[in-house]
Amino acid sequence: MIAVILLGGLLGILNSTMAAVATGTLATAFGTSLSTVGWASTGFLLAVTATIPFTTWAVDRFGGKRLWLAGLVVFAAGSLTAGLAWNVGSLIAFRALQGVGAGILDPLVLILLARAAGPRHAGRVMGLMGVVLSLGPVLGPVAGGAVLNALSWRWMFLLSVPVGMLAYLLARRVVPDERPADHVRTRLDVLGLALLAPGFAALVLALSQSAEQGGQVALPLLVGAALIAGYAAHALRKRGAPPLIEPRLFANRGFVAGVAIMGLGGLANFATLFTLPLYYQQAHGHGVLTAGLLMAPVGLGGAIAMPLAGRLSDRFGARGLATAGAILAGLSALAFTRIGADTAEIWPVLAALAIGLSMGCFSAPTMGSLYRSLPGPLVAQGSSVLYMLNQLGAALGVVLVTLVLQIAGDPITGFHGIFWLTLAMIVIILAVVPLLPAREPALTGKASL
Predict the structure, then answer these.
(1) How far apart are CA 395 and CA 209, in angstroms?
(2) What's the pLDDT tens digit per position in 400-436?
(3) CB atoms within 10 A of CB 284
(4) Most buried residue, 55, 153, 298, 419, by most Cβ within 10 Å?
């Protein structure tokens, strides 16, 4: 079951990162500007963000298996139509349809795995999920470059169709059905959805566009903040049916600490993944594909460390592993601040491997601890919060990295500045780690894997 769920979860991550390397190719194919075709990626991101709150409600209303299968169908339909797009407008629309499918699948990966594993094996299963999260952003650009070198851009989307259908057929066989009693048939909080979904989407839009448009993002930023504030007020006074996201989740210290660590760790990881290809291209003159391959040690390190660290955290708790991982990550970021244009490539490769290993050491235990801190009925809400903040973190990371590169006098100075910023994030993580639960509660029962 785990492998089947991870296969579906990999679809959205790979497709979004593959498409990022095709912006220039798509602009040429449709005879339009880079900024216009960039909306194909932005529309995907906004659709993902806006769909996640709906998924939080729908998983309990319709059941995890049915919603998972529906998400695979929507994603495959979006992939097929995006591959057949006839102009840039149709491509943007069909990429948004893909984003709706990904907005269903992405949080469901965590929800289904967390429910199947139970608290006892949360670290182990989150570690396996971490393999997908680590390798997806690294493999996507490499796979996208390989497809563009050998085939038409349409195959970047069309190849997801048979994979999605395979994931669908396998899921029908191995994902267990849920009895009606297993999920609560609550009414949809329509007003909450109307405030939360566009609110987060507006914030993501403002952050993702700010690097290019500067002050022109003030309006969506203000609108997004106002909608989120309105949702918080609505949810706090809501009676009867529960809100989509319960604000009182944030009264749980362990949950807040876990979300903060994952958010800051995601920013640090994104900064590394965004910056390293630029370093290899600008300082060493490599092409896009070679630079992507040289970036692979970051994902490889995370893929190695996360399953091991997650399994160990089930036995020993999260604090020690998270502390050790954050210290190693800080030392790795510090090493990057000493790397220059004439540094032999073996050193940034080793530093990249070390930072991937270190981030894996604190990410999987933190995710496992986060799910242990939540009662079963709130797992879906916790997963949605984690994914929505991840989307905001990715958009904020673009802004911070771009800003540092813009104000730097030269590429190497900008490279160093980004890793000083990464080091600052890791120092904050170290300060937050003590807020994780010191000891895991005694748990009984077996995982239904």
Answers:
(1) 9
(2) 777 787 777 777 888 888 889 889 989 998 898 888 8
(3) 15
(4) 298
